[in-house]
Amino acid sequence: RHSSAASFFAAATLGVALVVFAYSSSHGLAGVARKTVPLARVPLVTVSTKVGAGVVAAAALAGGMKRLMKLRSAMTASSMSKRTIAAHATEVKEVSKRDDPWNAFEKLPLRLEKEPPVPKKIPHKVPFGIVQGDDRGPEKDLMNPPKMKDDDLFWIRDDDRKDKDVIAHLEAENAYTNYVTHHLRAARENIYKEILSHVQETDQSVPFPIGPFEYYYRTVEGSSYRIRCRRRKGTEDEQVILDENVEAKGKKHYDVGDWEVSLSQRIMAYSVDEQGYEDYTLMFKDLHTGELLPDKIEKTSGSIVFGNDDETVFYATMDEAHRTNKIWMHKLGSDSKEDRLLYTEDNTVFDAGLFKTSSKRFLALTSTSSETSEVSVIDLNELKLQPTLQPKVIRKREKGLIYSLDHHQENFYITTNADGARNFKLVTTPSDFSSDKWTDVFAYDQNVKIDDVTCFSSFIALEGRQDGFSQIWVFDPQDPKESRQTIAFEEKAHTVGLSTNEEFSSTVIRLTYDSLTTPRRTYEYDPNMKELKLLKEQAVPNYDPSLYKSERQEAEAKDGTKIPISLVWRKDAISPSTESPVHLYGYGSYEICIEPQFSTARLPLLDRGVVYAIAHVRGGGEMGRTWYESAKYADKVLTFSDFVACANHLVDSKQTTPDKLTLEGRSAGGLLVGAVVNMAPYLFKAGVAGVPFVDVLSTMSDPNIPLTTGEWEEWGNPNTPKDFKDMSVWSPYDNIKPQNYPNLFVASGLFDPRVAYWEPAKWVAKLREIKTDSNHVLLKCDLDSGHFSASDRYRHHWERALELSFLLEQLGCLRKQDYV
Predict the structure, then answer these.
(1) Active site residues
(2) Among 69, 105, 328, 462, which residue carries the largest CB count within 10 Å?
(3) pTM higher than 0.85 for the full model?
């Protein structure tokens, strides 16, 4: 489920732990994707944006049930060291997160439960169809009388996350996971330290300019969060504008979702979530005095946009179902109760959003669903003269019409699927509203997907996809067709996107680039000289790219469609003539692309002889909008059968065997894992399902659960007869069978608003009850975080190390020193 603000996580690790969702943001400083999109069930993605560990940060972990016997942790292995034995000393003192993760992150001695918890059963019926008081869609379409489904584990749902029985249940589930993985404690610590050995812990981002200042962030070895700074151009006089480590002290969770500075750059606005539920509080700081202003706005979506002055701020709030529905204007120094309401989106299928155009002239107010959008604009220069100025609609919403825009001189440049352009095209329309005609800039090309447009004063950049890979094109608006150029790179299989580009007058473009074997690079591209200048390459200690190789293969789906698979491995760790251990990752929803990106947290797998593979299944956007649209609604099952086809391809081509094949997916990718292990459990030895969206029917029937109404256009509305029938075929929780299943590690977060903790908790309990094997199904619930796991970068790696040690043991790839 994607987010209205994109964030690039410091340790971003595609397919291994994170994918920070990806509408590559050229908005710059703030960290909000310039084209606002609805909240959604996202994987963890690395992305070419410049945000902090913000609104989309990292992977989450899951929770569970029961206790049978308590054991104390011996922790006597030599690899664990004697410091671990002293874990529960009465005197509490700060320990090194880097060197002593057990004492830093775990409540020692560990609580261990030898048997899995068995939850009680309380009869309950879940209604599908018309329900008095609920908006479940057009009444004429709903089942009436409603259809009922039995769910005797429904009691595990507690919207307040405070029920003592539920918390005890999750704690017991964690204790059982502790017991089953207790012998992996040396492996976990080794892998954790391996991951850190590839991280430049003390590091600095590439500064980006705004007027007289350059902004950047630093990380310091041993510190968990970013230090946000600025300096005047041409100097080294650093000013710390926000030290997140100071602000996070004493807090279990701390996430900066968005930040921005005012026109004069004296006032900094930033949004903070201290729970993981993604309710953000807006804070304001005077950067001359270092003092916080009295203004404080709670329960916002996290997005911030300054007007063209030092006192006007625009922000968004959410309804009770966590849907962004209102856009507000606040004057610094005034009571937020007096804020002007600019826009309300009453249609529960749509989410509201906001951004400022690259020219800084217009505030755009967006309303988007999966299949339709509408944009209104306010001229910020005129707003200063007319404080009650009303937004103007670019084009009223039409079912199926999607568009977004940027501004350049006399025109809006618009990316849209109008006129049957399913993979989108670029058009212009006058920004003075003298005409409502949309004029094509380039002829529509069905083989090129246009994602986003970013305008500069002398040129325009397009982001999109061609031949399955991300691309950037640049052109002169005075002569688009003749001047259009593609920014070329040596590696065909790569990931590229715009980075932070705050200055409209810039003559160069900032962009980021990486691949499965190439760490992230930040470049400047000069469209006039057609030259790339390397500004920084991500420092990866103890990594030699020449030891690794990647390639692209294709699997054939049942209908003959070719499904791309990206693979990467360490050349000296596998033998081409033998079947190798393979870890297969998938997602396949929301048109989100799982890119061939670099990941430091993937290296412990590769270095132990595991091939890492990404199945680019339909439902994602790797091959364009049509790739996504071909696996929705009644055809959603294609996402899962494509993944099975990729697994079969790897087995049939003798690259691996089912005993050496594992799978993974997160969020909606966890849904994929749940569906696939129901369909073809015999293909996999084990799997990891992170924050898995598995109770699809029940969740999508209830409009009071966050994200439900906005995703009826993604999965279907099971309150209607046809969608109920279609979704019943693949909903993981409803299709568990009395058959053998792979070993599974399931992760979730208690405060997750996107995939509620009770979905994986119920799924795990039901799997254990019905399956016919003795394989493990483990549930780990992070009781202090939400969808994106720990905000602390060290703890995040610690949690990932447990998942990797689980996978590596299943694949038989742990080393001797990894065992106690």
Answers:
(1) 667, 752, 787
(2) 462
(3) yes
